[in-house]
Amino acid sequence: MTQRTTTTATVTSLARGSISGRFRPCDDCTCSPGLLSRQGRRASLFLRQIESSRRKTHSHKRNSIAGLDNASIYSSDSLCQSNKEVNTSQRLHALRSEMEKHDLACYIVPSEDEHQSEYVAAIDQRRSFISGFSGSAGIACITRDLLNFNTGHHEGKSVLSTDGRYFNQALQELDFNWSLLRQGVDQTTWQEWCIKECQDMSEGLGNKEVKIGVDPKLFSYHQIIQIQKLINVKLAESKANVILIPIKDNLIDAIWNEFEVVPERETNELLMLHYEFHGEEFQSKRDRLMKSLQEKYATTDNTKHTFVVVALDEICWLLNLRGSDIEYNPVFNAYLLMNDDGETILFCDNPTSGDIKIFFSENGITVKPYNEIWGFLDIYTNGLQSQSNGSDENYSIFLPDTSSWQIVRSVENIPYKIIHSPIDFFKSVKNDIELGNAHRAQVKDALSIIQYFSWLEQQLVEKEALIDEYKAGEKLIEIRKAQKHYMGNSFETISSTGANAAVIHYAPPKENSSMIDPSKIYLCDTGSQFLEGTTDITRTLHFTKPTQEQIDNYTAVLKGNLAIERLVVPEGTTGYSIDAIARQFLWGRGLDYRHGTGHGIGSFLNVHEGPIGIGFKPHLANFPLQVGNIISNEPGYYKDGEYGIRIENDMAVKRAEGLHFGDRKFLKFENITLVPYCKKLINAKMLTTEELEQINAYHSRIWNTLVQSLQPQSITFKWLKEEVRPL
Q: Which ranges carry the Creatinase N-terminal domain (predicted)?
């Protein structure tokens, strides 16, 4: 599963059509006129195609259906869905009314929650509510035109900024009120857009003070500093007066219930992992953390350290606890505070079992309500300040660089230091027990995925069944449930046929999902959460006869994947420095992809785990790969409107034994995924002898590992035997 990329951007307007008088919208429809018009045409065609297909006899060959091009029953797009495609006019009007109360010219709505999580609970999906865009990454910026003096008539602009994974999806989901800022393609960032809009309003009002507002709990302090610096730079030669201010009460929360039932915050019971699944007890992890802070940051022997843990997966890793408050992510909403005196305070509202209560008691962990963190920080920091004034001891609070602006504002009266959390590094290096469990999780998921692929091919090709993308993904879940310790998917399965596969983070809708067309490419990006570990695997398949272009482009992607896997690199190498190796074969064909090549993967934790990754984001140059990392390897290619290709394996970083250059040692990768590549899509003539041997050895390893778990008469056994046959 691809991880977000962050680069620069500019404004691209969205064209929208007029409403079709022949299409009748669904009950309680909130779709924009442009969406209704577009979908009305699709719906009419879809219904005619289904009616036509019903008249055909069962003996009619699938190839003749697939050859009908625009008349194919597989070409249908999703119909009107009020839950994703939203007319935002009234919502924006209500928001601008709230902005007026706070005298704001601009309000910024991020995707993240208080903990800077990439994937958030339903109640934290504010950006999705106001924009209608449901992707996991993006930021919405809304202005209120201060130069419009019509009382009660709120006007302004609204833009959505997102990265290359979501361009197609955003264009489909945003209505006529919104423009798209394409990160990495356009030239104006969302920060620059907000500042320029406010600068123009300030100058138009005689350089009056104009305010940009944000919820200080949802923006990291680092982001705030960067925005403030940019304001200073952009206005250095202007008399315009633009300021950035915190708005304590979230303005989206103030209007949400006018339009929808606001989701409730989940507070599900916690799960305690046993040693066989984590390999290191809490006290050992705590001691490592506090020792790390002392060694790296202590200024005197009398310094007393306090550390605030903000990231949810870091709290879960440290405590060896897991939750289910956010879909697909085994985390729970919490803050954690620790100090040198042995005090550990957990702020959370989740119910706990008797065993966890005993664990808390034995390890001196105090539990307080989640929202008490703010009042506690005020009292705690005031207390530390008083103690420091009356003794020789120095007190310092360490905050992770993911800390919100509000957390920093809460501790400003005592010395504090913002650091990159040591837990982020500790967590990314798996111990031997976690690595062994990761291998076991991969075997389980491989058995599930090959059973699913063999079933899907039989249904589509032999039985000529009509199966839509969503129901196919549900079948995979059904198969996975047979595996011991399966806890759920690690993200929403990307089950995509044909042109949908070109939408990098496509999610098939539950209703009116596209039928899987066996004459087109099928991309499946899927992962599991087992007690043993987290998986993230992508395979691109073709069930009949692919085009030569598809074969050659698939092979170019595969060559990049194989090249990363073969790498041997010296210690200290970062993912930033090896990203081009995966792209070289696509570049040679004038092609590329708009996402990173790899991301860290948690151990029964988040499927996207920092700090490491393989990609072109500059910050990755700061985080070298280490023995024990688990990282994805997922180059791809996407031809908009036609097909998409991605091949993703999970790799463990290992020591390259016997290799050294002086004192410098070397690293290598081990591909721990066990799902074969699609033989129909491989052009063996494009492969070197080394690459052919690499593929054949990999397929042989898959067969030898999985065959003992398969029934010889099963379709899975027969499918796998054919797919791993030597090239």
A: 91-236
The token pair that represents 52 in the structure block: 């036509």
> What secondary structure letter does DSSP report for 557?
H
Rounded to whole angstroms, the Cα distance separating 193 from 158 reads 10
Q: Which of 377-381, 421-425, 474-478, 713-717 has the lowest mean pLDDT?
A: 377-381
Report percent pLDDT > 70 for the chain.
86
Contact indicator for 7, 183 with CB cutoff of 8 Å: yes
In this structure, what token pair is assigned to residue 409? Answer: 């504002």
Residue 74 confidence class, pLDDT cut points 50, 70, 90: low
Looking at residues 378-391, what average pLDDT do you find? 68
Amino acid letter, residue 236: A
Q: Could you identify the residue written with the tokens 């009949």?
A: 544
Residue 332: what are its φ and ψ, rounded to 5°?
-140, 155
The 3-class SS string of 304-315 reads: EEEEEECCHHHH
Strand, coil or helix: 509:
coil
Count helices and strands in the chain by DSSP H and E runs: 21, 29
Report the half-sphere exposure of 172 (CA within 13 A, side-chain side): 19
CB atoms within 10 A of CB 315: 23
In this predicted structure, which of 228-232, 300-304, 525-529, 626-630 has the lowest mean pLDDT? 300-304
Enter the pTM of the model: 0.88
Could you say which DSSP state residue 187 is in? S
Helix/strand/coil (H/E/C) assignment for every residue in 236-293: CCCCCEEEEEECCCCHHHHHHCCCCCCCCCCCCCCEECCHHHHCCCHHHHHHHHHHHH
The tokens for 599 are: 């991301």
